[in-house]
UniProtKB/TrEMBL annotation:
CDD domains cross-referenced by the UniProt entry: TIM (cd00311)
EC number of the protein: 5.3.1.1
Protein name from the UniProt record: Triosephosphate isomerase
Catalytic activity: L-erythrulose 1-phosphate = D-erythrulose 4-phosphate; D-glyceraldehyde 3-phosphate = dihydroxyacetone phosphate
Residues holding substrate: N12, W13, K14, G175, S214, G235, G236
Active-site annotation: H99 (electrophile), E169 (proton acceptor)
GO molecular function: triose-phosphate isomerase activity
UniProt gene name: tpiA
Phylogenetic classification of the source organism: Bacteria, Pseudomonadati, Pseudomonadota, Alphaproteobacteria, Hyphomicrobiales
Described function: Involved in the gluconeogenesis. Catalyzes stereospecifically the conversion of dihydroxyacetone phosphate (DHAP) to D-glyceraldehyde-3-phosphate (G3P).
Spans through the membrane: none
Gene3D superfamilies: Aldolase class I (3.20.20.70)
Family: Belongs to the triosephosphate isomerase family.
Length: 252
């Protein structure tokens, strides 16, 4: 973690959460004291059906609300899709784009991820742009080049430390309980910093780089101490307030 970058711990609820889950959000928000919030930014990215309710519950509280995906267009004939403007209107301040589950389930390639990030900015949202290699790509020694390629293809020109966050999520670590070694995370995050700094100068130096993939309270401190890890993108553990607060505490 860099001493000059305020970390971000973002939860991604994925396709989980009914209105009854607002209690989880409230328990998380209750645990994020003013002191904690001064040291770490906290966000819950929930399903679109909950965005408005989460944002309402978040009024006057320190836990930000984000979406999980957006369409590239402002509106129109795109049945079932949600625009960045709709998320912003519902109270979101950020949106995840390019999550590997979108890349796999919906065939989203770098070009569309880039367009979604631009759509997020157009609506005034922070784009949380996800990259990460598959197990096969890691085993064949291509993790660094795959991630660099995804960064080049998915991060639009004009990215700044304010409008963008990058999340490195090795696909094989998501929801599996497996995590890369600290050395492997350091290698990828170091490469991401090099690529982003070369392309965006000072903005790339200070852009937040999150690690995601089986982050738990038990491994959060180790991951937090890796150079160029500026927070976490948390799936399963963000659905339980105690676990998520345990992770946040490691970044404070
Ligand atoms: O966006 C979050 C990631 O996909 C990580 O999920 P996980 O913490 O359940 O492994």
């Amino acid at each position: 973690m860099s001493k000059t970058i305020k970390p971000l711990v973002a939860g991604n609820w994925k396709m989980n959460g009914l209105r009854s889950h607002l209690d989880v959000y409230s328990a998380i928000a209750d645990g994020v004291t003013a002191n904690l919030a001064s040291k770490v930014d906290v966000m819950i990215c929930g399903p679109a059906t909950l965005t408005y309710a989460l944002a309402q519950a978040g009024k006057g509280r320190a836990v930000l609300v984000g979406g999980e995906d957006c369409h590239t267009a402002v509106g129109g004939a795109h049945t079932g899709d949600v625009s960045a403007e709709m998320l912003a209107d519902a109270g979101a301040t950020a949106v995840i784009v390019g999550h590997s589950e979108r890349r796999t389930d919906h065939g989203e390639a770098d070009e569309i991820v880039k367009a979604k990030a631009e759509a997020a900015w157009r609506a005034g949202l922070i784009a949380i742009i996800c990259v990460g290699e598959t197990e096969t790509e890691r085993k064949s020694g291509n993790a660094v080049s795959v991630v660099s390629g995804q960064l080049a293809g998915s991060v639009p020109d004009g990215a700044t430390a304010q409008n963008s966050v990058i999340a490195y999520e090795p696909v094989w670590a998501i929801g599996t309980g497996l995590t890369p070694t600290a050395v492997d995370v350091e290698e990828i995050h170091g490469e991401m910093r090099k690529v982003l700094s070369a392309r965006f100068d000072a903005e790339g130096d200070s852009m937040r780089l999150l690690y995601g993939g089986s982050v738990k309270p038990a491994n959060a401190s180790e991951l937090m101490n890796v150079a160029n890890v500026d927070g976490a993108l948390v799936g399963g553990a963000s659905l339980k307030a105690a676990d998520f607060l345990g992770i946040i505490a490691a970044y404070a």
